[in-house]
């Protein structure tokens, strides 16, 4: 074959595309565009191998438009203008042009802005493809002129359908038993291109018998775990870790941390975020969580991987099973906000030191009570500015160790009320 199998088998019309029913189904935005016979500018956002380019090509064919592909990796402003000149000539002849730009997020602001007048006057219908979140990587001006189509990784069932299509296209059965075919679909992780490239290799190799899943693993290189250390996948995974911990879903938290670790994420970054979680989300409901987080971080710094990995795992389990309280975090937020509003208020004189005679004469320290010497250990004296009404920032909850803190807190406050 002079072209890769994935390219040879690329669907030519929308109805042949597998998956993405949220866009291509009866109520999907792309289905409605085709029904109306009028395409709108579109950004297709999804992981590799989910069908972005295929959908764009099929759309152009569905409405009989010239398809002009471009890659943001290799193209620049001059290429855009050249394509636009050709599109204008096309328009004068009564034909429409669909401009498809792959990896559109790689265009800088100037290059993205170059597209705007041509989208505005309808010189082209534009479809951009990106694996990155458009909200973070595309100009607002470009986004405002486009619909966003979110593509999902293909399901195991979708990929098994592609295996059957490949066998029919090649006119031969793959040397895989049923379990191995399912295993191949699962290890492709929603990526049709990876699946078909693997099918192409397997079909061309001379295996003597049908392989089992273990034999398939031995015969081919496994798909590398998705590792995006600074983009969407990175933040999606750490968000999943945080939300699972907050939900006290221990097993899910372990899974998402394992996903980060096996995809090459920096364990120190994970430990830093877990330490923040111990302070912010567990808080005073379990004050030991912070110390355990710091200890796990220190153990990993000293021992590294794989020995330090168990410390990370124990920390995840501890945080997931710990009671949660954001009372301290809310107290910090409220007190900081109020402090900014009242930055000129001075402390009351009763809690000010008077190291000099002049300061004593000015009333510094007058009325101060040394609380530890009182019978209850609390005098109830006011420590807010004299001209300020008392504020309540910290509101402990009836959960975990904070239940005990609340008892103390209410006890001290009872003296101030008197």
Textual characterization of the structure:
The protein has 418 residues and is of the alpha/beta class. The chain has helices at residues 5-8, 21-24, 29-36, 52-62, 77-92, 109-120, 134-137, 140-143, 156-170, 178-187, 192-204, 213-219, 232-246, 250-262, 267-282, 288-303, 309-321, 327-341, 357-361, 402-417; strands at residues 42-45, 66-71, 97-102, 125-130, 147-150. A 5-stranded parallel sheet has the order 2-3-4-1-5. Strand 3 (97-102), helix 6 (109-120) and strand 4 form a beta-alpha-beta unit. Helix 15 runs antiparallel to helix 16. The model has no long low-confidence stretch (mean pLDDT 86).
Descriptive tags:
5 strands; alpha/beta; 418 residues; elongated; 20 helices
Write a compact overview of the structure shown:
This protein has 418 residues and is α/β, with parallel strands linked by helices. It contains 20 helices and five strands.
SSE layout:
Blueprint: H1 5-8, H2 21-24, H3 29-36, E1 42-45, H4 52-62, E2 66-71, H5 77-92, E3 97-102, H6 109-120, E4 125-130, H7 134-137, H8 140-143, E5 147-150, H9 156-170, H10 178-187, H11 192-204, H12 213-219, H13 232-246, H14 250-262, H15 267-282, H16 288-303, H17 309-321, H18 327-341, H19 357-361, H20 402-417
Mean pLDDT: 86
Computed over alpha carbons, the radius of gyration is: 31 Å
- Helical region count? 20
Uncertain segments are none
Q: What global shape is seen?
A: elongated
Strand content: 5-15%
Helical content stands at 40-55%
Describe the largest sheet: 5 strands, parallel
Structural class label: alpha/beta
Strand tally is 5
Cα separation of the termini: 90 Å
Task: Name the strands of the widest sheet in spatial order.
Answer: 2-3-4-1-5
Name the helix and strand elements from N-terminus to C-terminus, one letter apiece.
Answer: HHHEHEHEHEHHEHHHHHHHHHHHH
């Amino acid at each position: 074959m002079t072209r890769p199998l994935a390219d040879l088998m690329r669907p030519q019309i929308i109805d042949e595309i597998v998956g993405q029913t949220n866009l291509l189904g009866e109520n999907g935005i792309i289905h409605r565009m085709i029904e109306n016979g009028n395409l709108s500018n579109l950004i297709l956002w999804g992981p590799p191998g989910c069908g972005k380019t295929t959908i764009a090509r099929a759309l152009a064919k569905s409405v009989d438009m010239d398809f002009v592909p471009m890659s943001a990796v290799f193209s620049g402003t001059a290429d855009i203008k050249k394509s636009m000149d050709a599109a204008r000539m096309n328009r004068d002849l009564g034909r429409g042009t669909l401009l498809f730009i792959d990896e559109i997020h790689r265009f800088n602001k100037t290059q993205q802005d170059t597209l705007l007048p041509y989208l505005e006057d309808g010189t082209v219908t534009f479809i951009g493809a990106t694996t990155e979140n458009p909200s973070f990587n595309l100009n607002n001006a470009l986004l405002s002129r486009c619909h966003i189509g979110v593509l999902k990784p293909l399901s195991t069932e979708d990929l098994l359908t592609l295996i059957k299509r490949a066998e029919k296209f090649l006119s031969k059965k793959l040397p895989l038993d049923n379990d191995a075919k399912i295993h191949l679909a699962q290890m492709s992780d929603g990526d049709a291109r990876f699946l078909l490239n693997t099918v192409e290799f397997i079909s061309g190799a001379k295996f003597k018998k049908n392989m089992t899943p273990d034999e398939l693993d031995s015969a081919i290189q496994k798909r590398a775990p998705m590792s995006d250390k600074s983009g969407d996948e990175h933040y999606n995974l750490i968000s999943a870790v945080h939300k699972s911990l907050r939900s006290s879903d221990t097993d899910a938290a372990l899974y998402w941390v394992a996903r980060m670790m096996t995809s090459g994420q920096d364990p120190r970054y994970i430990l830093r975020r877990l330490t923040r979680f111990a302070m912010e989300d567990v808080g005073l409901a379990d004050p030991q969580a912070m110390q355990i987080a710091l200890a796990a971080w220190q153990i990993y710094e000293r021992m590294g991987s794989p020995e330090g990995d168990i410390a990370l795992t124990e920390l995840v389990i501890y945080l997931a099973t710990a009671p949660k309280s954001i009372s301290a975090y809310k107290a910090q937020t409220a007190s900081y906000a109020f402090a900014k509003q009242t930055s000129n208020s001075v402390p009351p004189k009763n809690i000010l030191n008077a190291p000099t005679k002049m300061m004593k004469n000015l009333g510094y320290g007058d009325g101060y009570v040394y609380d530890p010497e009182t019978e209850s250990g609390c005098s109830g004296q006011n420590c807010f500015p004299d001209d300020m009404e008392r504020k309540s920032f910290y509101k402990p909850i009836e959960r975990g160790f904070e239940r005990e803190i609340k008892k103390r807190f209410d006890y001290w406050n009872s003296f101030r009320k008197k």
